[in-house]
């Protein structure tokens, strides 16, 4: 089944259960969510509401127990491992609270990393990584390793890495939680600017009121359901 071309991602009736011995816990209970191309959206809710679980499902990192996901107009087949890998690599970008940079690699090598699984030439990989690091204000830090960068700079590298494959959607899990107020504001300025320039949709999982204030679309999770 195809969906409208203006839709980046749509999920319908998502359920997720986790088993702990003989006990099952319902993390998601029939979630419907639509992200349009170019959205700057936030997913909020208290701890335990299912935000991280939903982000994992939307990022195709784990399958739902029930429900369907459409990405870039096509139904996601959770049993097709190779196709899932290609969708994650080519259509999705990820930004994590803990940065998840490889400590032994330089900034530019970290940004290039997702491109190593493509057929792109080494010169084109380097050119694209340089362009994005320049776009996030780190043209003079390309050869620095993560431990030589501040937290805000590391997160900028992570944003550049998330965008290097020109994804349709970037999923960001609490990206400002480890940053001070000024650095968080600068990072949000950057991501809003990239959102407008590139048309890439962003979905944030967040407790941060600063992120919520900037979101053009807001989803609130409670007890595994999105509130109307």
From TrEMBL:
CDD domains xref list: ABC_MJ0796_LolCDE_FtsE
Key words, A-Z: Antibiotic resistance, ATP-binding, Cell membrane, Membrane, Nucleotide-binding, Transmembrane, Transmembrane helix, Transport
Xref: PANTHER family: IMPORT ATP-BINDING PROTEIN, LIPOPROTEIN-RELEASING SYSTEM ATP-BINDING PROTEIN LOLD
Organism: Verminephrobacter eiseniae (strain EF01-2)
Protein name: ABC transporter related
Database matches in SUPFAM superfamilies: P-loop containing nucleoside triphosphate hydrolases
GO biological process: lipoprotein localization to outer membrane; protein localization to outer membrane; response to antibiotic
Source organism superkingdom: Bacteria
Glycosyltransferase recorded as keyword: no
InterPro entries: AAA+_ATPase, ABC_transporter-like_ATP-bd, ABC_transporter-like_CS, ABC_transpr_LolD-like, MacB-like_ATP-bd, P-loop_NTPase
Taxonomy of the source species: Bacteria, Pseudomonadati, Pseudomonadota, Betaproteobacteria, Burkholderiales
GO function terms (MF aspect): ATP binding; ATP hydrolysis activity; transmembrane transporter activity
Gene3D superfamilies: P-loop containing nucleotide triphosphate hydrolases
SMART domains: AAA (SM00382)
Family the entry assigns: Belongs to the ABC transporter superfamily. Macrolide exporter (TC 3.A.1.122) family.
Any one Gene Ontology cellular component term annotated for this protein: membrane protein complex
